[in-house]
Amino acid sequence: MGARTRTTMEPLRIDQVKSIVPQGKDSYEIYQFPEGTLCSSDGELEAAISAQGIDTLKKIDRSALLSQVAPWGFIPGQLHFVIVPPDQDEEDTLESLPFSVRRWTYFRRTPAKAPSSEAQASEFDLAQRSEAHRIYCGRPYQRSTPPSLLDETLCQLRCNLDSIIPDPKDIQCFASLRAYACENLTEDERRETFTNILERGNITPVRAKRGFIGASRYHDDGDLRVHCLDVDVIYYVQVIKREIGNTSGDPYVEAIHYWIENVREFFCSRSCENNQVERLNFPAVLVLHLGPFLAIAAAVYGDDPIVELLCCIPLHIHDTHDSQLQAGERALAALRVALHSLRDRYSNIVDERVPRADFPFRDYYKDSDHNVHSFTYERDIDKKRVFRVIDKNGTPLCVKFSKRFAPALRAVNKVHDWIMIVMEDKTAQYSNTMWDVKHRKDAPEKGKGKGKEKAKPAVSMEAALEQVRTKLGVLHDGGFVHGDLRDVNVLLRNDDAPADCPDILLIDWDWAGVAGKVVYPRGINTQLRRPDGALAAEEIKAEHDVWMVNNLLE
């Protein structure tokens, strides 16, 4: 690998970036890693770069002062700079690690510790500051593709929390849970009673027993296990606390680490380089019972741990608060269905699942005639819920998972509470966005595209802008709005593409809808330049689209 790191910095006599470049490497490019990136040896360099992504790093001018680019100083054991040859392709310099190696990287960089100690605020804060040790669990980091898209049982669990109709035993079980949860009990009494109620109500397929993780001294408050590929795998773990304040650490984080340490035990027991193992993402349900509260989370392990909190139910609500009571009853019903499903599926889960562990579970779509078309995942696009796939005929497609409206190109399928949009992959005909053309002079080519002929747009930026205005007028005349007409969402036809292809394509229709009815989503990025009033839950207006188009060339 043509890159080098200097992880322990001695005092420098020259306060310039170029002073850290080894002799004979004057033409190398220098990139800076974020503060707090742990890397204790050169052997961890490749894994750290793979986890971060070279394109996300800040390129440093070699004439800059070190005191300016790193005013916090240099800390032993942290990765500060990476030096990359200027004329080497990305695939040669920063070749992606094999999936089996990436999966083990988290454990190699994160030694096993007691889950209760990992849950301490100071330990958790330190881990979350480093991408090498971070857990994507919503505090504050999360993956765009949640666990509920990576396993069908977890997807159904999330959907059922809002839609399942509880049976009488679920309702009776929730009533029993509420009756006891409001009492002042010791932690042992609370754990025993909670476990008994879930077992009697058939929420858990069998009684959850306290168990140790492998040969370690770490034991949880109860778990359920199943034999998978000759190893015991946890598919349910519970953490019980006497009261919500009776703990020095976060029970959510503690439950996560009980599950993670079981995954570590699996990888220590088996080789990761196995097609079956590459399809196994260890789906599990985590349950927290803290005094009068019940919380449910979902966890999977793709190439790193990802956890999603699904609900938190108060058990000490008033008897007349019907909506909260119904939410609690649905939670127990959804939990019951999920746990029985995981127990039944795990025995042959790696044979039934086809996609790799870090891809969504759904690998087919149905067309308007209900014909089933299977496809194979190739890769994700920019770490979003958009994936390049190949169908059984070799046709390249894009598959997008959304929660809002999107136009049907090939197919739109409901996947529990997700919408799966299948569209043709137009990359070969539309290689540039308006943003690419605007910034081509500012962003030198590098990596795989360096030294290769770049496709040229068939139209000028001015002509493209006029066509955007025309298409927007048609959209508005039909009573619709787009909501996100940025330069990155306007594709330009390549000059070597067929002339009958449209000169431009407007993409990313997630926010589009009927004018006067559709609003901006909660997660709108307010750091981007947008018109006044373009805020979460505010109405998307036609004048907002016009403002965005008027600023496309800025």
TrEMBL record:
InterPro entries: Kinase-like_dom_sf, Prot_kinase_dom
GO molecular function, one term: ATP binding
Span of domain Protein kinase: 282-554
Name of the protein this chain belongs to: Protein kinase domain-containing protein
Species whose genome carries this gene: Lentinus tigrinus ALCF2SS1-6
